[in-house]
Amino acid sequence: MTVRIAVIGAGIMGADHARIVAEDLPGATLQVVCDMDEARARAIAGRYDAEAATAPEAVIARTDVDAVIVASPDSTHAPLSLACIRAGKKVMCEKPLSQSSGECREVMQAEAASGTRQIMLGFMRRYDPAYRQMRAALTAGTIGRPLMMHNWHRNGSTPSADFTGAMAITNSAPHEFDILRYMLGCEPVSITATQPMRSDDKVAPVVMVLQTVDGQLVTVEVNNNAAYGYDVKAELVGETGTIATNHVSYTRMDKGATQSLGHDADWRDRYAEAYRQQNKAFVRWVQGGGCPELAASAWDGYAAAVIAECGVKALESGSRQDITLIPRPAFYAGATGKVA
Ligand code: ISE
Q1: Exposed site from 38, 174, 201, 295, fewest CB < 10 Å?
Q2: What is the DSSP letter of 253?
């Protein structure tokens, strides 16, 4: 069965998903590109001979659309995921599911009431070869029991001048929150967050320390104004060894008595393979394969939202915040994390 996909949102990520679906996804076809800005929808749809549309709910309801990728602004993710659940269509929703944990709970309730898993959440790092190798080494016992995980998340610059420290936690850090839960297989129970002072008015890095229910420590640095490029790395420290992600670069420059590696401009290049694998898993799922083993669920979206809410409180109050999740619903029993 060829899966006819609608991509909702024709911004940076929507355009990238449209390209992947149209050019790189066996078994799928790009049926519709939808954006409130008609010209933007037409520009992307026109590249791949797809239709353009401006009304997302009508697109989701179309009988010639089998599945949906939501890549519209963050605040629309939950309402559009709910519309997909109502229409009985599987959705690959970009992160975050919502910045409100309450809204994530509404989505989880609706999904559970529908009786089947319908949402795959775009925490694509789970499909990245580096993180996969890290997890394989960990689960094989190669580095012993994990003690600490260090994470660095650097963007060249912020998407807008009014980007804040709280946004670093709600927009960028959810990737870190998800990967630490996924990697360590347990939930964080507390978080602190603080920032150094910059000499200008740009948003300074946010440094967070989380403790897990199993007593591990996790550090997260989110620096949205790193100035030099997109750079995400992680190191897992076990009791008998460590494993770190390598810098990914196809070439190395030697010049002027100096050796250098390039940095990607943003996440689309760095995680190109992860996005491709994630979307392939989505198509297989829509075609009737089981729910993808690696995929993040609405539960994972909820957990990331709670951690982000606590992170923002920690940053604003200057004090450590306890992280409390609701007991994981039985419906999400196979999803990441230990049953509470
Ligand atoms: C963006 O939304 C992402 O998902 C990127 O991975 C992250 O690095 C960036 O900071 C976010 O704005």
Answers
A1: 201
A2: E
Confidence of residue 101 (pLDDT cuts 50, 70, 90): very high
Whether residues 10 and 35 fall in one domain: yes
Structure token digits, residue 329: 């619903």
Averaged pLDDT for residues 160-174: 95
> How many structural domains does the chain have?
2
φ and ψ of 16, to 5 deg: -70, -45
Q: Is 151 in the pocket of ligand 1 (CB under 6 A)?
A: no
Q: Is 155 in the pocket of ligand 1 (CB under 6 A)?
A: yes
Using a 6 Å cutoff on CB, does residue 175 contact ligand 1? yes
What would the pLDDT profile of 52-83 be if each residue is shown by its tens digit?
A: 999 999 999 999 999 999 999 999 999 999 99
For residue 50, which phi and psi values (nearest 5 degrees)? -100, 170
Assess whether the C-beta atom of 170 lies below 6 angstroms from ligand 1. no
Atom from ligand 1 closest to the CA of residue 222: 10
pLDDT at 333: 86
Quick check: 260 pLDDT over 60? yes
- What are the beta bridge partners of residue 126? none
Cβ of 279 closer than 6 Å to ligand 1, yes or no, is: no
**pLDDT tens sequence across 130-139:** 999 999 999 9
Cis preceding linkage at 79, omega within 30:
no
Ligand 1 centroid to residue 158 C-alpha, Å:
10
**pTM, 2 dp:** 0.96
Note whether 39 and 157 are same-domain residues.
no
Element containing residue 189 per DSSP (H, E): strand 188-194
Q: Tell which of 213, 246, 266 closes a domain.
A: 266
